[in-house]
# Entry
Amino acid sequence: MLKTLMGGAALALAAALPLHAQVDIRKETQRWQQMIAEGSPAELFEIEGEALWKKKQGPKNVSLEGCDLGQGPGVVKAAYAQLPKYFADADRVMDLETRLLHCMTTLQSRSPQDATQRLYGNADRPSEMELLSVYIAGQSRGVPMAPGTRHVKEREAFELGQKLFFHRAGAWDFSCSSCHGEADKRIRMQYLPVMSQPEGVRKIVATWPSYLVRNAQVKTMQWRIWDCYRQMRWPEPVFGSEATVAITQYLTVTGQGEPYAGPGTKR
# Structure
């Protein structure tokens, strides 16, 4: 089971300080997060994403402007805030990235291999999926998160995501809840939100995709889930799989109602 961790240097420093001088780590971390959010470069990536949305690609040489994200073909305003949801044309629940992949292969006639050959970029060259996700998500600022919950498959996705969140397996016998199931846990200086509770997950689902300061990259929720599985020493999930979408559905429904405030800025 995950224990509360703190960097050795920071622990030694805190212990060496007189009691009146020791800082409240939680407050200082929140203050730091607010500072970096004020200067986020996410909007620069949004501009590139908009250009990609309008760029003609694939054998059909068409843009993604005809892609239906749930609000009608080409409508990006408020679309992200209402995902994941069920799409009848695909007969499945989709998050933003899964839907974008669907549109790339159907509207543009790109092969799945071409559309998924570079899903995660780097600081020098963000991926197409990352840029598109940041642009589209940015069009939902201020809109309350309201994923689909009425269709039977939306409810099934929520139930599956909930089971996966608490399911322990892998070499370390970890689950999502190992890190995000109890209050006051932290890894080094980072407090971990309780993501099975609305008050803990709202700020999370309302700020992804995000710009990560530590490696100067924009990243998406699909990446976040993939990286968590990697760190838990589980087999890495398939991009856009039923499992990753279900976890996103569970978290977003749990945190629904929070106005979207991203793309965010993370450590």
User: Anything to note?
Assistant: The chain is about 45% helix and 5% strand. The radius of gyration is 19 Å. The chain has one domain: 25-266. The beta strands are 85-87, 92-94, 186-187, 190-191, 210-212, 217-219, 264-266.
